[in-house]
Amino acid sequence: MGDRGMEIRTLSRTRRILLLYCSFFRITALVVGGGLAMLPVIEEIFVVKYKLLTREELLDMTALTQTVPGIIAINSAVYIGMKVGGVPGALAAAAGAVTPPFTVILIIASLFPRLDPKNRYLLGVFAGIRAAVTGMILVTGCRMFRRTVKSPLEIAVVLIFFVLAIMKVSPALLILAAVPFGWCYVWWQTRRLARAEQQAADGAKPAEKAVEPAAGPHENGGDAK
Questions:
Q1: β strands within 57-191, DSSP E
Q2: How far apart are CA 68 and CA 87, in angstroms?
């Protein structure tokens, strides 16, 4: 962990909680498109800038927040807040993530009845936002693919689940199916690694002498008469 990360962790609890609240307030205020679109910004802030997370921890967080129930943005805020500031940090991060969308939704809900849904300028704004969000999600997917998929078997699994998703198989069923597969895959990898280490250990042992040297003709005795 870099000096910046150590500096942040040495802050008082109050300042860490304030940092978490302000960070997630900015993220949800400026990023649209849901939790997946937030991941590049979360990586930039908490991995690159503050060095409070590693990229491996970010990948674990991504898998966890999409598996458990709830909104990805809130789940991510709670996960990071808990690691940095404990329960108060989790509450502060979640509050920071909730405040901007809650406020914006209240404003939009009060103004929406007066908006013309066929206004071409309004439709153009939404079209641009959708395109930008799609690009951010694609970038996030490509980064996750490069960091997590490293073997032909994993590539095959990605393709299988991709096809099943296109066929509109329930995402809940896909996640449930991935759990036993992941367990079996780790079990198989662990067994294979253990066998390889055992073979390497056996090969490193010195070869035992199969035949003892024969005794000389005059061993334990005098000259033959």
A1: none
A2: 18
